[in-house]
Design brief:
By secondary structure, this protein is α/β, with parallel strands linked by helices. The protein folds into two domains: 70 residues; 254 residues, Rossmann fold (3-Layer(aba) Sandwich). Helix content is 48%, strand content 7%. It is built from twelve helices and five strands. A five-stranded parallel β-sheet has the order 2-3-1-4-5, sandwiched between helices. Helix 2 crosses helix 5, helix 7 crosses helix 8 and helix 7 crosses helix 11.
Length: 399
């Protein structure tokens, strides 16, 4: 009997001990779960920190690249990049300066020429980093429509009927390889209808000019089809017949244009090095080249002062042609020959070699060339070039 009681007591004690053991282990399990939860929370915090660091590094890199290309001017508002000048001050500045505009087809040598002209101590040109693509004046103003680099996608948007751009009325074709086909982009005297246009443009471009220099330089390839408008804008008077308020303008000392052109096939091949133009055929790009030059040809007779230069001749004797420009605007040419910019003489060669290789290696290339010669060469010949020459490939291939 006593043994049974002892066994019962021992069994009960064992059960109590087991129960107490489980009770003692339960806090340990809770402690482990708590540690895991805390660790998980810490890991999430670390992940968030690294994510923030990554985002900061990413956007800092993007900002750094943008600033490297465009400078701090791109962070300024349009109002911040505008001189506060009265109408009388604008009139005084314009009348005491000469204006020099460079134009020509994109990829045709305008930037090279602009850089060389900018070296002259009596010429003030925009700096390299002014918040605009390639320091082109057309993208640094709000007076007239913008077209050229960066408007290829606008054309796609407009074609889909969703165009909301303030310049929508100037049509669908404003991008590279297209803008010259649109007659609305061919700005003439009729576009100059208000005297405020001159004031606004001088305030915007003047922010980047040095008025202590007698010649103010601006470059935009698209000037090739808007020269008559620019001449009317600066000069007023009889050259701005559609602007009644422009009759009393004090005209500038001179408005001179320098147009530089390039072999249409070299120019078209150079366009193809830009991704946005790879979808265009050489035929389409040469057709656009012809359209630009036909519009320029119709304008030249209305310009008071201009110089016309062929790229291929310029690169062989840059100082000769620069001297012609200096003489045309009344500057001492001896001051402008210490060039920082290197002029390469054979930049067309690589494009001609590539074209010849395509003619012999790519299916349908020769037929496309013959078609282009048939439809466009008569027009190209008027401007001093010949498409048939590029089919003469002796010495331009590797076989």
């Amino acid at each position: 009997m006593r043994n049974r009681k002892q066994d019962h007591v021992q069994s009960a004690a064992a059960e109590d001990a087991a129960a107490n053991g489980e009770t003692e282990k339960q806090p340990d399990n809770q402690s482990e779960e708590l540690k895991k939860a805390i660790q998980k929370k810490e890991n999430v915090k670390k992940l968030h920190k690294w994510l923030i660091v990554f985002v900061l590094i990413f956007f800092s890199t993007i900002l750094g690249l943008v600033l490297h290309v465009y400078g701090f001017a791109i962070l300024q508002t349009p109002h911040d990049k505008m001189l506060q000048l009265s109408s009388a001050q604008v009139d005084e500045i314009v009348s005491s300066h000469k204006f020099l505009h460079v134009g020509g087809p994109h990829r045709g040598g305008t930037t090279m020429l602009w850089n060389l002209l900018r070296d002259h101590p009596d010429i003030s040109g925009f700096a390299d980093k002014v918040g605009s693509d390639l320091s082109e004046g057309i993208f640094m103003q709000t007076v007239y429509p913008r077209f050229g680099i960066g408007h290829e996608l606008d054309a796609v948007t407009m074609a889909m009927g969703r165009e909301k751009h303030r310049n929508a009325r100037f049509g669908r074709e404003r991008g590279l390889g297209k803008y010259g086909m649109n007659s609305d982009n061919h700005l003439q005297e009729s576009y100059m209808q208000t005297p405020k246009a001159r004031e606004v443009l001088l305030r915007q471009w003047g922010y980047f000019w040095d008025f202590s220099k007698p010649v103010l330089l601006e470059k935009s390839p698209s000037n090739i089809i808007i020269s008559r408008f620019l001449q009317a804008l600066w000069t007023g008077g009889e050259l701005a017949p559609f602007c009644d308020g422009c009759k009393s303008f004090s005209p500038p000392q001179q408005v001179h244009f320098v147009f530089i052109t390039r072999d249409p096939l070299a120019n078209s091949m150079a366009h193809h090095t830009w991704q946005i133009c790879k979808s265009y055929t050489i035929f389409e790009l040469v057709l656009h080249w012809v359209a630009l030059h036909e519009r320029l040809e119709s304008d030249l007779g209305h310009l008071k002062s201009y110089t016309y230069i062929k790229f291929e001749e310029f690169v062989n004797e840059p100082d000769v042609y620069l001297s012609q420009v200096y003489e045309a605007i009344g500057l001492d040419g001896s001051k402008g020959h210490d060039h920082v910019v290197t002029v390469k003489k054979d930049t067309n060669l690589k494009y001609r070699k590539q074209y010849c290789e395509d003619l012999h290696m790519r299916y349908g290339a020769m037929e496309a060339h013959d078609k282009m010669v048939k439809h466009l060469n008569e027009d190209v010949l008027k401007f001093g070039y010949d498409l048939t020459e590029w089919a003469e490939c002796d010495g331009y291939t590797n076989w």
